[in-house]
Every structure is written in C-alpha cells, then in structure tokens.
Amino acid sequence: MIELNFGRKLGALDLQVDVTLPSRGVSALFGRSGAGKSSLINAVAGIVRPDHGRIRVGERVFYDHDSGTDLPIEARGIGYVFQDARLFPHLSVAGNLRYGLKRARGTHTVGWDSVVEVLGLDHLLDRRPWNLSGGERQRVAIGRALLRQPSLLLMDEPLASLDAPRKAEVLPYIERLAREFALPVLYVSHSIEEVTRLADHLVIVSEGRTVASGELSDIMSRPEHAPLIGRYEAGSVLDCTVLQHNDDYALTTLRFADGQLRVPRIDLDPGAPVRVRIRARDVALALSRPMDVSIVNKLPGRVQQITPRDGPYADVTVDLGSRTLRALITRESCDRLGLQPGTPVWTMVKSVALDSRSVGFSRRPRSASPAQAPDLPQKPGAPAEAD
Ligand SMILES: Nc1ncnc2c1ncn2[C@@H]1O[C@H](COP(=O)(O)OP(=O)(O)OP(=O)(O)O)[C@@H](O)[C@H]1O
C-alpha cells in the first residue's frame, strides 16, 4: 500500500493529505486548478518537504517527520512525467530512452523492448524531439520515466498540453502501460473523462485536502461528491464487457452485473472489457416499465437515496442489484412520482447519450483480458437484453 499522511503550508495553501492507495494500478488525484494536486505529488517525489507526517510506498519510508527520515529525490526510485515532455533536444528518441536506463536503480524489471513495444516507439527511435508530434514526445517521456525502473510512476497532467486528437492518441498507451507494468501510478488530472478512462482508485483533492478516496465507481456514485466532480459531468461508472454487435443498426450490446446496455457500435471484440460513464443528467426514471418510448436502455431497480439540491434538481440514486445508477431529475418530478427510498423504478438511458466522445469507452487496464473476461451471471428479473 501507499500511505500518504502529511501536511505542508505553501503560501495560502494548507496541504493536508490523509489517504491510503493501492500498490498497483492507477490512482487518480482529481480536483480543480489550484487544489494542491501537484504539491501533493511533489511531496511524494521529494521536491516539496512536508512539515509533519509520513510518506510510505510499500515497505519503503520516503519521509517520516518523527524519525527524521527524508529520502533524497534520487533515492526514492520515482518516475515523473510532466505536462510537457522535457526531452533532451540534442538526443534522439533512443538517446532520451537510454538516459532513463542509465539512471535506473535496483532490479531491472522494465525492459527496453517492452517499453518500445507498449508505447509504440519502434519507428521513432532515430528521430529528434523537434521532429515529433506532441503526443509522440509524451510517449517518449513516459518511456524514459519507465526505463528508470521506478517503484512508482507520477504523472502530472501528462495530456494537458495536447489537443483533443493527440490526447485520444496517447490515452490508450497510458491505459496499456498500467496493465503491462506492475507498478503503481499516481495520475494528476482535472479532467473527469481522463480519470474515468484510466483510474482504478480516485482521490478528490479540494482546497489542499484529500476529501474523498476509494474505488473509482464508488466515489463517482456518491451524490455528495457531485459538486466536487462537476454537476454536468457527475454520474455513474459501470464496468462492462462487449456482448455482441448489431451491424445492421451499428449498435453494440454491453453486459454488466445487473443487465445490458446498448450503445453506438464500438470497435472491440466480444468479451472485451469496457468502462462506461453515464452522466446523471442523461438518466430518466419511470414508475412502470416504459413500453412505447424510443429509449432502448431500460433497467429496473429501487430508489436508494434522494438528495435534493439547491434549485430545481434532485439527485436520485437507484440500486440496480449490485450496481447503482444516478439520475438527475427535477425535484418537481420527484414529488410528482412520489419517489421515496425503496420505490421500484425503471431507469432509462438513451443510447445516443453513450457515445465514445462524451462518455469515453475504455479497455479496462486491470480487468481480465478479453480471453479471460468473466461470464457474468444475469440477475434474476433483469431483462434478457436491453429492449
Ligand atoms: N512554494 C509555494 N509557495 C507559495 N504557494 C504555493 C507554493 N506551491 C504551491 N503554492 C500554491 O498552492 C496552490 C496549489 O498549487 P498546485 O500546483 O499544487 O495545485 P494544482 O491542484 O496542481 O493546480 P493546477 O492543476 O493548476 O496545477 C496554488 O495556489 C499555488 O500558488
């Protein structure tokens, strides 16, 4: 585990961190600009020294105020990827990668060939940084950080300087590295779309404090976090697998623990793991099974919690069986339908709300590979397929 329990006053920022993170997979640090995310990972890297507390990564104590332990930056075995690639302009791509390898410490577990393959760098090795696109430069920077054989990879908004197409190009590489190399990644971002695609664990940072920490889908599903995530973007995250495609209608059916979802066609084989983010504002509720509506995704459940917001809206959390789905509806509709905790309802999600741009489908980095994808049982009472 990674134990981060420390504080530091930085100008007006009172950084107070208290979280335990898993020692594998991607832990995202999410929060608004100025929340303290960079300061937090800089303390882990040894660039910022805490005033008190403790930082431990696995068995290694990086910082412990009480015992006076404060490992120098070089001794921490950290890989760091910044917003800008910071490559050496006079070195080729291969030269930049070799620089990482030369500075490696400890056992070499990350090999040159696997880094080149996973990050798609083979055809770039002889090129100079000025000759690369922004996305390619970031892939080289990630490769260089990995070849240092880090015990922890820190990534501070690594896509922030890229335009949308370059972001889309680099994201699958980051997903893949988290799956292929068994090292923890701390990933700083203020983009919920990126976080949803990449993270296993989510930490919300607000005004210098770590205000929520837990499994991504759990933290995303809690209405109290909506103001921190952004009211427009807040919603639920469902881990699914591809069931089948309908080529005539260009649709794909996904399966998850509580039923199925039909979405615009996605180019993945049946069995492939996929993560779907469903915004609360895209979910409607009905008291009986809607028969004559165009919406194809209809899932039964029970109201679990109703959280009225200031203004016209209420957040309704619906228990689908083993997962929850959040709906944002008006308080007026809530009253008109007489919704209470326990009320049976049908949730409805338009397929067109689940396109890859607005939602972000993703191969899940840490789930089973397509060949091993679990054959999820159907919940009794769940519809045989999205109808
Ligand atoms: N050494 C310092 N002295 C004074 N103030 C500092 C120092 N370091 C950081 N701060 C302040 O702390 C606040 C948080 O900065 P930080 O970069 O950690 O936030 P962030 O969440 O990463 O934001 P962004 O996404 O914009 O990078 C900022 O207001 C910054 O000015």
UniProtKB/TrEMBL annotation:
GO terms assigned for molecular function: ABC-type transporter activity; ATP binding; ATP hydrolysis activity; molybdate ion transmembrane transporter activity
Ranges for domain ABC transporter: 1-232
GO (cellular component) term, any one: membrane
Secretion signal, residue range per the UniProt entry: none
Gene3D superfamilies per record: 2.40.50.100, P-loop containing nucleotide triphosphate hydrolases (3.40.50.300)
Region (Disordered): 359-387
Keyword Translocase: yes
Source species, domain of life: Bacteria
Pfam families referenced in this protein's UniProt entry, alphabetically: ABC_tran, TOBE
Domain Mop: 292-358
Keyword annotations from UniProtKB, A to Z: ATP-binding, Cell inner membrane, Cell membrane, Membrane, Molybdenum, Nucleotide-binding, Translocase, Transport
UniProt name for this protein: Molybdenum import ATP-binding protein ModC
Organism: Methyloversatilis universalis (strain ATCC BAA-1314 / DSM 25237 / JCM 13912 / CCUG 52030 / FAM5)
